[in-house]
Amino acid sequence: MKEYFAFQWHITDECDQRCKHCYIFSEDNCKKPDAMSWEQMQETFYNCLDLCEVCKRLPYFYITGGDPILHPDFWRLLALLKEHEIPFAILGNPFHLTDEVCRKLKYYGCRKYQLSLDGMRETHDWFRKPGSFDCTLEKISCIKGAGIHSVIMTTVSGVNIKEIPAVIDTVVEHGADVFAFARYCPTSGEKDTGMTPQEYRELLDTCYLKFKEYEATGCSTYFNKKDHLWTLYEYEKGVFKIPEGTEDGMIYGGCNCGNCHMTIVPTGDIYACRRVQNSKVGNVFTDRIADIWVCQMEAYRNYTKFEKCSKCELLSWCRGCPAVASGKEGNFYAADPQCWKEVIL
């Protein structure tokens, strides 16, 4: 059975919000939003399919922005995906979702629609814009009603870390299909997430117990342990064990950067990871992605360069979040700022 190759495809920067932690506008909040033309979108699409043919994987697109639904050729792109029977998910805002829009998304093959919830009402609306919190919760049922999986993602930082348990309760109460959180990646303006390793581990402790309690009640929300430091946490608890018969030098889990993922932004620039600000590896309008995958992306597959993780027995399964490390140190291979494990360097 073939594995998937994931493309996080930003078709436009156009957005109804200017979130305080958004990496698109982190350096210039007044920048003119970029967007691909229809011709450029077609060129990008077939360039991506070419890579999948070369690496013998199936394509999976995460269509995002900005808010992708604001692109004038959004539905035209979905029709192209449907024509080729390509699975996709949408990462967007709640403001333009209606029952009719969600039914249309389902018709074109949308499997998941991801919304963000970055704290309780006051905090979330401060991050994004007034009314965003209530609108986000309201649209969960709209998405589910069309037969699309509703996903809620939270970006955790020192600003909202104490609100995460309440966010989990709220998400479960509103019936979201999936909940996950990832950490804030510092941008050029700041170099710290505002969380110590111990504070973050305590959050995982609290969430782990809450997840177990909900699962015991038959809760329908799936708790996706997206952050790879969950692997370290569950390893210490004895939940995760290193499988027997594994080979040295093989990668079995952890960050997908360099393995089966890349990001394309509206200018055509290709990033190893969108959250790693200095990870541009080419441009989809001038480069063959398959060539970039073999050549430039090799710089993100040198696992012996991880300054801390390469000395850890969990190298093949964890590696924390190189994007957070890069945001703080400017170095993809630096130690994860929230990793609490003591390793002899």
Topology diagram in text:
Layout: E1 4-10, H1 38-55, E2 58-64, H2 74-83, E3 88-91, H3 99-107, E4 110-116, H4 121-127, H5 132-145, E5 149-156, H6 164-173, E6 178-183, H7 197-216, E7 222-223, H8 229-236, E8 261-264, E9 269-271, E10 280-283, H9 289-294, H10 322-329
Parallel strand pairs: 1-2, 1-8, 2-3, 3-4, 4-5, 5-6, 6-7
Antiparallel strand pairs: 8-9, 9-10
Cofactor: [4Fe-4S] cluster
Pfam family, one: Radical_SAM
Domain Radical SAM core: 1-213
Write up this protein.
This protein is α/β, with parallel strands linked by helices and 345 residues long. 32% of the residues lie in helices and 15% in strands. The chain has helices at residues 38-55, 74-83, 99-107, 121-127, 132-145, 164-173, 197-216, 229-236, 289-294, 322-329, and strands spanning 4-10, 58-64, 88-91, 110-116, 149-156, 178-183, 222-223, 261-264, 269-271, 280-283. Strand 8 and strand 9 form a beta hairpin. The chain is globular, with a radius of gyration of 20 Å. It starts with a strand and ends in a 16-residue tail after the last helix.
Number of strands: 10
Low-confidence stretches: none
Strand count, sense and barrel status of the largest sheet are: 10 strands, mixed
Let me know the average pLDDT.
93
Largest beta sheet: strand ordering: 7-6-5-4-3-2-1-8-9-10
β-sheet strand percentage: 15-25%
Protein name: Radical SAM protein
Cofactor: [4Fe-4S] cluster
Pfam families: Radical_SAM (PF04055), SPASM (PF13186)
Organism: Blautia hominis
